[in-house]
Amino acid sequence: MDDSNCQIYEDEIQSLEEEIKLLTEKYEDKQQESTFFSDEEILMSIKSLQEEFQGESKGHESPLDLKAQLESLETDLSFLMKFTGIQFRSHSKKTVERTGNRTVQKHRLSGNCHSLSFQLEFHLLEMQSAESVSAVVTDLHIVMASAEDSDITKFVSRAEERGSLLTFFRSLSTYAEWYEHRRRTFLHFK
Amino acid sequence: GVFAHLELLEAQAYKAAVKQEESEQQKEKLAGLRARVQELRLQRDDLRAKLDLQQKGQLGKEGVVSDPAQPSPRAVVEWKIKNLMSMLQVFYLTGISGKLTKRGVCFCISTAYEGTYLDSYHLDLLTKPEVQIYRHSLPVFIPLQQIAKKYLQTDIRRFLAVLSDHLNAYVGRRYQADQLQEHFSEQIEGTLQRNSLCNLLVFNYNVSSTSKTFPFHARLLYRDLCCSLPTEVDVSCASDAPAALAEMAAAHVGLFRRMALHKAFSSFSSAGESMD
């Protein structure tokens, strides 16, 4: 009799712990996605963190580690944008579904690849398994500034049809470089 | 007589005491569990209320909402870090991402079949005194040295683009073969043979109609390593097969040439061929 009571409590404890984990993730996602801090606010925060550090560090990451991590991420990002020619102007994501080991987020992205501007949105489904995380893109919508260019409309519609986000970026990158090269050559002969 | 009786009483008393202790431990355990359940219920309800408030805060406001409580500098920096990591994740989705290292750059080439992301590969490059490959995780059958010889020194972007084409095509071919084995296993007779580069596939398959099944033999060769569609397709049926079957084989050749393998199978499986 008592054993079965124990089991009932233990089952409830497990389900509550799972629910708490999910709710916490949902809450933190929303916090992250709905807040925005300007660059000045970030700089000020780094400064006050450093001042705080004169005191103690309580076993979290030290403020210097946070600052170093921030700077390393910023340099990597700026390198990638320069190297690939892909500059992102804005990016927002919103968690649409979070259950067990499945997360769906809606992404909105705008930017340009060399001189070609794009705006896109898609759903990203991520599933956590024992060894890895799998990612699938669906509902891809792409809007290009230079919509009259038939070459562009061709690879855009093909990408949308199949949800091929990666192929879109690879094609865009190649095309934009060629376009840029052609533009410069043209100017050279003017 | 008396002593035996006393011993018996002692034994009984001892058993009763043990039982009493067990039942008390059980009561304590239950009480502990009950307390834990209460604690977790409170925590859960608290979170639900917080989420509810969050939702309400969003209603009727355009654009951005900031936390009513003044966030700590640490929270602000942590927010920015998460934000930058999101951005880097987006680069992963574009196919080329990476990070700077002490002596160069470590690139990450991601691959995908349509919307499904598959394996990613790393390429650790040194940039001084000249660009060299320090280490990598590319499979041996990708002609890395050949491609590096052609482009690495003169045009790194092109080098990565060509590698990306090879890798994406390889992964795409492999994905199609995997999908075929996974979703059409009843139609495949025996094993599907493939090489490590997945650019040569040989298999036997059946097409059924009403009560009969018709065997076919297929050979797909993908000569263009940057392509995930075959350049040469052979489909044959038994030499004594009726003309209609030979026509079907020819039709399948066309399908395999222009469509992904698993999609081609999907199209003729669902069409429910009529052989009569």
Automatic annotation (TrEMBL), chain A:
One of its GO terms (biological process) is CENP-A containing chromatin assembly. One of its GO terms (cellular component) is chromosome, centromeric region. Residues 6-33 form a coiled coil. Pfam families: CENP-P. Keywords: Coiled coil. It comes from the Eukaryota. The gene is Cenpp. This is CENPP protein. InterPro entries: CENP-P.
Automatic annotation (TrEMBL), chain B:
One of its GO terms (cellular component) is Mis6-Sim4 complex. It comes from the Eukaryota. The lineage of its organism: Eukaryota, Metazoa, Chordata, Craniata, Vertebrata. This is Centromere protein O. Keywords: Centromere, Chromosome, Coiled coil, Nucleus. Residues 16-57 form a coiled coil. It is found in: Chromosome, Centromere; Nucleus. It holds the Pfam family CENP-O. Belongs to the CENP-O/MCM21 family.
